[in-house]
Structures are given as C-alpha cells and as structure tokens.
Specification:
Strand content: 25-35%
Radius of gyration: 43 Å
Distance between the termini: 32 Å
Structural class: alpha+beta
Number of helices: 13
Shape: elongated
Largest sheet: 7 strands, antiparallel
Length: about 675
C-alpha cells in the first residue's frame, strides 16, 4: 500500500511540472518496478485452536445436518478423515491466516489425518464367555460334560464348532474374544448333587417383602406378602395373616425350573409353624404357567402338599425348623415347571368374620431345593483362559501371534483385575516390555484385555515398538496438504500418487499397456513381483522393440511432478565397464498426445537420464531410479510414461530389463 501511495504522488507532481510535455514513455517500467509481488510460500502446522476455528468456519457454510455434523467432528476429533478431508476444510482458514498474498502463493499445511482403524479393534470389545450349552456341544452330551476344556476335550478341537453355532452370520476376517474354563486334569466320574433350583433366602432382608428376581410374591385378595425374617442368624421367608384385617391369598412362585435333562429330581424344603389355628398352606406345581403375574390364578396347578408333613402345632408360640419331606418329580422329567407356595387365610376381625373360622397360622419356609444325585463328570479345578479368534470364511482359528490376550496371571502380576482406559497407557507398555524383552524395532502387538468390572467388558489396542518404546497406535498420522492461491481463492493441489505399478497388480499389467513393435517377446509380469522384458529366449537372441505405457495422467494442476521406480538390467552386450549399449536399449519416454497405443516417436519425448540411473549390469540387485522430474509436462491433461526396450539379434545384445514400484507423484519438498 505504501508503494502504491508513493507512485500516485509522483505521477501528480509530474503533471504539475511537465505541463503538456509528452511523457507517456518516460516512466516506462516504473509501475512494474513498484507493483507488489507478494508471492509467498508458507509451511505451517495446524494447532488445536486452528481445528476449532476451521470447525466454526465450516459450520457457518454448512447447508444441511450432515455438513454440520462433519464440521463439528473436526473440533471433536482434532483431525481430518477421508470423509472430512483436509482438502475441503483447511482452505477455509487460509484467507485469515495469510493476508495480502498474491496469486501463485503456496501453503504447505501439516495436519492430522485419522486413518481407518482395523475392524478387529471393535470386534474385540466384548468378552464372549462360554456357557453350559457351549460345553455340552464340545462334550457331545447334555449330561456327561463339565463346563471346561481338558487335555482330552480341547479348545483347539472344538472352538470353531462352538463359535459357528454362536455366530452363524459371521463374515470373513471377523474376530471374537473368548473366555473359557480349562482344567489341566481330565474329567472323572463321581456321584454329585445336581441342583435345578435352590433358594435359602440369605440374600433377603428381614422385615422386608421377599424380592427375588423373577419370583412372584403377590396377595390376590388382600395386601399381604411373604416377608424376610431372621432368627439366630438364619434368614427365611414368613407369611402370617394375623391382624391382616382381610381375606388373603398369597402366592410365592419360583422362577422356571428346567428338568429337561433330569432323571429322578426331588423337591424338598424346610418348614416351621407358629400359632397354628388352621391349615392355610398348600404346595403347588404347574407345567403351563407362563411366568407372569397375570397367569398365576388362571394356570393349572397340581397340589403336592400330600407329599410333605406340614405341622399343625404349636397352637401358641413357634416350633422349630425341620425338613418338610420330599416330593418325587420324576413325572415332570423333560419338562419346565414352576413351584408355588400358596397361603389362603382369613385375618378379618371376629365381627367381620361372623361364623367363618379364623385362619391366621404363621408359616416359615427355608432351603427350597429341586435336585438329584447323579453320576457326573467332574474336574478338580479350572482356570479361566482368554483367546482371540478369527473367522477365515469357513473356520474359526486362533488369531495370529501378533494378538496377545492377557491371562489371569498377567493381571495378577500388575495387581489389577482389569485394565481401565485410564490405566492402559500406564500398564500396557510395561507389560509388553516385560513379556517381549527381545522384540525388534517395528514389531506390532495387538493387546486384548478385560477393561471393566463387568465380566463382558473388554478392549483392544495396537502397539508398535518404536525407538525401543512400545507406543500405542492412535491411527492418526501427520500429512502435508498443499494449497495454491488462485483467482478463485486458495485451492487444494492434489499430491497423491498418480499411478503405481507394484506387486499389487498380481499377474497382469495393472493399468499399463504393453505394445510390441518388433519381435514376439513382450513385457510380462513375473511371479517374483516385477515387470520383465527380454529378447533372449532358450539360448537365442531376438530383435525386439517393446513399449510399456502408463495410463493417462492429468498434470494440469501439478507444480512439481516426479517419477520414481526400481529397476535392474543385465546382458546388453556391453564390455569393459561400458554401458553405452544399455543406454540405447533401455529408455524412458513421455507423451502428451499418445492414445496409449501409439508409439510414434514424434509423439514422445525421451527423458534425459543421469548416469546414476543405469544399473551396473553386474548383478540382479534392483536400484532406485531417483526422482526424475516431469515439470516440463505440467499443464497437460494427457500425460503418459513409457518404458522402451530394444534388443538386437545381430549384435547378440538382448539383455533383460526388470522394473517395479513405478510411482508418479507430486514432490512437496
């Protein structure tokens, strides 16, 4: 601004002094000399404040909820992603950062890019704890099994079938984190009690209504309930209509009792009576009860009371607990049943009762059990083991050795039962250092571990040994985005790889085209991972001219494109350390007009290659080409690269040229 102001003043003075003098050319070049030319290059790394600012600017121009959400994610994550690219958002900030820049200015902006995290990090966030049905599948029996693997019935032999049954819709490369029990000793047979239902009321609270998950405790006539009571340290359930002031019909109904695999189940309980004045208690069983409160009075109940001795004394005070007897439930084998203790009473006052008898007997019950003695398999003890499994499309297999599942001994060694998100950065690197003292630089380990007090909570994290330290991979990298100031504003300049030719193309040419001008031999992909051309076959030399041509590239927006590749060549007929024949035989060309099949040299420009470009010819060691500049071809939208090969039968010069890792990209430094 200052220069422009001085120029304006100088021209005014000339008008005053010079009058009508011709002066149109006496200041020729003056404007160009003082005109600002503020074409700058900036190198800058975004700060946390910049991400917040970019987010705010993006929200201002958002046109829908999706745009707003993307803008907000920049502030939340403090990085960009493929779906929220820096190319689209960083340029919003540049006009405020770089004021007074002229067209052609460049900005190299270092930013954080969030890469896609491996799917297994999400897959492994749940501990899949094997249940009885899983072990039954492994032992091939619903009765003769233990809830553990053993040296005979192993996890490795059975886990795939178990996981296929648990996860029938699993897809290839899906992972599962599994907890199972293991016994170092094989199972043996012995008589043992199998319980199908057991309740001792020790989890209840004295003088509060019985509340057991899934049980029903309901008076369908009055407001009475079975309640917890305690005597001499023993908790039990009690019901009494004394002073209830109403008729009562109180049910205490168990949860479902599964006798599907039973053989000779027995039902028993302990009972005590106080102030007996009438038989008020009946013991019932139902096959069709649906487990809901609304079905209690409509279900079909069978009375089992006659199987038990229910005391009718004392009439004052209380007796003592004693076994009520046993009911054989063999007729219910293979079924699922419910048991109910029904209390029918009348606690109304004498005046309200009239001639009806008083029925307020107190009943106390405890140690309800449905069980049987079975000859069953047992193991002395078990330990928990944790393993990560991967589905390969047909079978579940143990994940590769980069996956490390922490075991009970590992938690014990660090003094924790699980590793929270806050503790992970502290304990996991130390664990890895201790577990893998001979790890090599760059080694990667995927840790899977329990992450919370809930047994099903787990987490996974990836660590890489970097400069001798195990560092967590947050899947965020620093990337440089290049921008150029144009008449339309700051615009992103794509610096990604334009073309590539490497072992990813498999057994074909990828996007490249092989054009043979002379000879039967052609460019072909070698199984060792490179493109190969030779005129020497089965001991004979052949004449050849063959081109390997890239797809078209658009360099119209490029600033500094280069090509690099690795190659090796031998047996081109040179001797005495000369490489003159090799220089003729292997050349690199560029065209801005070829259609990809035309090899008219009039359409192609040969790149001038430095001496260091050429292989020594002494061995088969690939060498890098170095960065070969393509700056002479920027501004063109149809740029192709070609590798041209020549061989001569007459000169016995039919060498072999091998090329791989061909990349064209924008050089930013």
């Amino acid at each position: 601004m200052k220069n422009r102001h001085i120029l304006s003043l100088g021209l005014s003075m000339a008008l005053l002094v010079g009058g009508c003098t011709e002066y149109n050319d006496q200041f020729e070049g003056l404007y160009d000399e003082v005109k600002p030319s503020n074409v700058l290059t900036h190198n800058y790394e975004l700060t946390a404040a910049d991400y917040t600012k970019i987010s705010d600017l993006a929200k201002k121009v958002a046109t829908n909820a999706e745009d707003t959400a993307k803008a907000e994610s920049i502030k939340t994550n403090m990085y960009f992603t493929e779906t929220v690219p820096a190319a689209d958002y960083v340029k919003l900030l540049l006009p405020e950062m770089f004021l007074y820049n002229d067209l052609g200015s460049k900005a190299f902006i270092t930013h954080r890019l969030g890469e896609d995290k491996p799917a297994f990090l999400t897959d492994l966030r749940t501990v899949n704890i094997l249940n009885a049905a899983d072990y039954q599948l492994a032992w091939e029996s619903e009765t003769a099994y233990v809830s553990a693997f053993t040296p005979t019935v192993t996890a490795s032999a059975n886990m795939s079938a178990i996981l296929k049954a648990k996860f029938p819709t699993a897809t290839a490369d899906q992972y599962k984190f599994v907890e199972y029990n293991y016994s170092a000793e094989d199972a043996t047979s012995q008589s043992t009690e199998v319980e199908y239902k057991a309740e001792d009321f020790e989890t209840q609270t004295a003088y509060q209504n019985i509340t057991i998950e899934g049980w029903i405790n309901k008076d369908f006539v009055g407001t009475l309930a079975w309640a917890g009571r305690s005597y001499s340290g023993n908790l039990y359930a009690q019901v009494s209509a004394n002073n209830s002031g109403s008729l009562n019909q109180v049910y205490l109904v168990t949860t479902q009792i599964d006798l599907s695999n039973a053989i000779a189940p027995l039902f028993s309980f302990d009972i005590n009576v106080g102030y007996w004045n009438a038989n008020c208690l009946s013991v019932l069983i139902s096959e069709d009860f649906d487990g809901t409160e609304g079905d209690v009075t409509t279900a079909t109940w069978t009375d089992l009371s006659s199987n038990f001795t229910i005391p009718v004394t004392p009439t004052t005070g209380y007796g003592v607990f004693a076994p009520a007897g046993t009911a054989d439930l063999s007729s219910y084998v293979g079924k699922k049943v419910y048991i109910a203790f029904k209390y029918d009473a009348d606690g109304r006052s004498d005046a309200d009762r009239g001639t009806d008898p008083k029925k307020t007997t107190t009943y106390q019950i405890d140690n309800i059990k449905v069980s049987e003695e079975k000859v069953a398999l047992t193991v002395p003890s078990t330990e928990k083991q944790y393993v990560a499994y991967k589905y390969n499309g047909s079978t579940w297999v143990t994940a590769d050795n980069s996956f490390v599942a922490l075991q009970p001994a590992d938690y014990a060694s660090i003094g924790l039962s699980y590793i929270s998100s806050a503790n992970a950065p502290i304990y996991l690197p130390n664990f890895l250092r201790s577990k893998f003292p001979y790890a090599l630089e760059g080694d990667v380990k995927n840790l899977v571990y329990k992450s919370g007090s809930n047994p099903a909570y787990s987490a996974a994290a990836q660590y890489t040994l970097t400069n001798g330290v195990w560092e967590a991979n947050d899947f965020i990298i620093n990337e440089v985005a290049q921008f150029s100031l144009k008449s339309t504003g700051w615009e992103f300049i794509d610096t990604d790889i334009l073309i590539g030719l490497n072992d990813g193309v498999g057994s074909n040419l990828g996007d490249f085209t092989a054009v043979s001008v002379v000879g039967d031999q052609v460019w072909a992909w070698d199984s060792y991972g490179y493109m190969k051309m030779t005129g020497y076959v089965s001991g004979s030399y052949f004449d050849n001219e063959d081109w390997l041509i890239s797809p078209a590239m658009n360099l119209s927006e490029r600033q500094n494109p280069v090509i690099t590749f690795d190659h090796v060549g031998r047996y081109f007929g040179d001797s005495g350390g000369s490489n003159e024949k090799m220089k003729i035989a292997i050349t690199v060309w560029v065209s801005t007009t070829s259609d990809g099949t035309s090899v008219d040299e009039a359409e192609w420009t040969k790149l001038e290659l430095p001496e260091s470009f050429y292989p020594s010819g002494a061995n088969w060691t690939f060498i890098p080409s170095g960065e070969l500049s393509l700056v002479d071809f920027i501004g063109n939208s149809n740029v192709r690269i070609a590798f041209k090969y020549l061989s001569s039968a007459a000169d016995n010069a039919a060498g072999t040229w091998e090329v791989k890792n061909v990349y064209v990209y924008e050089k930013t430094e």
